[in-house]
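Thread: Modeling a multi-component assembly for a lab meeting

Hi all, long-time lurker, first post. My supervisor asked me to bring a structural picture of a complex we are working on to next week's group meeting, and I have zero experience with this. I have the sequence lines for every component (401 residues in total). Could someone generate the structure of the whole assembly? Inputs are pasted exactly as I received them:
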Amino acid sequence: MKLTIFNGSPRGENSNTSIIIKWLEEGILSREGCSLEIFRLNRTEEHDNYAARFGASDGIILVFPLYTDAMPGIVMAFIEKLSPWIGRMKGKRLGFIIHSGFPEPAHSRYIQRYLEWLCSKFQAEYAGTCVMGGSEGLRYMNEGSMDNKRLLFNRLGHDFISRGRFSPDTLKRIAGKEKLPVAMRFWFRLTGFSNAYWDMLLKKNHAYDTRFARPYSVE
Amino acid sequence: MKRITIVNGIQEDVTGFEKSLDRMMERLRNRMVFECFRLREMNISYCCGCLGCWVKSPGKCLYKDDMVSILKSVIRSDLVILISPVVMGFVSPLIKKATDRFIPLIHPYITIVRGECHHKKRYARYPYLGLVLVDKESDSMNDSELITAVYKRAALNLRSRLLFTVCSNGSTEGLEHEIDDF
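Re: Modeling a multi-component assembly
Sure thing. I ran the full set together rather than chain by chain. Output:
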């Protein structure tokens, strides 16, 4: 099986997407008889070449961060290049992974519907869409605290290779609760605790005092 | 007078929509102020996800390209109309690239809106959004529902609302009808 993973992060190598792909890779390479290639879509000058690789693969996983409720611009530019493969991907397997900074997976479900539709246009076998929330800052976390997520993505990679699709159980465990529990909403509103991450970065950059700036308004 | 910003993401005007658009703006110019941006002729980089606009120079993108003029126009307008062809069942990469670059307009802080996490406002008010999908084949208009669902969400995250999606095969009749009573 010839497997290709596309990294759809504009941040490229130094991205949360890369970490997820590394975890997937661990699950995939545990199985023999499978070749794996990984391409970074932030190298937009390579998109024609990558589009050819897309069509020549048996299995494809596209991983991207949620940008304004959909795929990043570079990923849409790549999808445009895939038009020759519409209706020509029979028997090939296509899966997606969307991660977002928002804690709830609900934000990513809208673009997921589009990805399902796109997969049907290719006439590829739909392996599923994995959605993970709370990904911003993943790359700053220490490895130990991420062991649980890492194992789940190992399993997701293994699911894809062994069964040709993501298992519903793994998807559910990665996604967690679809919406914030009411108690948590209340807590959020009361404390704004997720803002601590932004405050830390703002202070580090000596930008905390200007955090409410409105530079684009014409007063 | 209402201010309307038009963000035109047409890659190649095969339907003649742009000519109709010019005529429409001419007809309405006593009542509305239009600012029109043709993305294909502008120098705009893809958002690189550095989040500098949130944590380094709050509210300001680190890129000094043509997007700055669009953002200034967007934040002072009453309505932003996104014009896009249907590309692989979605909006054009040009429109996606431009709307990704809207994030300096909001604040990184999170707040609860309708039971969900959304970003806080940076500005006091935000324009409404409208979407025009231009395609010469009318059957691809079946895709408009999926696109609308996503852009309703994008509008919500811009602390705004998507007022309409209009499908056009080159005429601006539907669009004019929508903005007439805006």
